[in-house]
Amino acid sequence: MDRHASEIVAYYTFRYREDQRLGARPQARLERTRTLELLRQALPAPPASILDVGGGPGEYARALVALGYRVRLLDLVPAHVAQARAGQPGVAAEVADARALPEEDDSYDATLLLGPLYHLLDRADRCRALTEAVRVTRPGGRVLAAAISRFAGPLDFAATGRLDDRMVDEARVLLTNGANDPSIGFTHAYFHRVEELVDECRTAGLADITVDGIEGPAWIAAEAAAHGPMAQTVFDAALRLARVYRREPALVAASAHLLAQGTVPDHPPQTGRNTPDPRP
Question: pTM of this prediction?
């Protein structure tokens, strides 16, 4: 495991409770609600087999199991795997790297990457993770991959009253390289432009690619109103706008998170299970 991967595992093991994230802030609640809606719309009907790569503690995996799907979860963080197994309902889960999946070709009806692209700083690694997702998904199956928008961090800081001079400087840097500065917050992460995400999915062999803005453009309003008398009213309005503007090109990148969807073609490029493991 390389240094960045080790630091990411340590971050999620000792510093951050991912299992509590999706029920907390308005942005996270919008993310959860809209992601589940988009999954229900995009996935084949239960009991289809779903591989949840980078599925964390299993929030989405459990929701899909409850809907009747057969789900297997893989995650780089051992603590997340333990939480996924121990939850109710429990989820079949193993530790694995998204760049080298321990799965056979064409094994799943759909594959989810709802986290790995956040933490792979190099384009080659992101394309490799997407290519692995294509490899293990049957022809005609779907791959859904989430990314953090290039503009999410600065918009979040502005909405919550934390946009100081240092963060303005970081916003300028993000425009050029997309790499998060862990000293400001979060951990090693890459923030995507929409066109980059589409290009990486296309490079991996996906067809019919679309990108949704998950939280919609009004998530920052929901964050700004979180502790005021209009909190629920603004949240509800933000959710409605997220549904209306889900693929409006001018507004997709205003979401905190992006969700790319693509179809595995009949003859996708295959890497095979003997591809060298990227981990030292």
Answer: 0.92
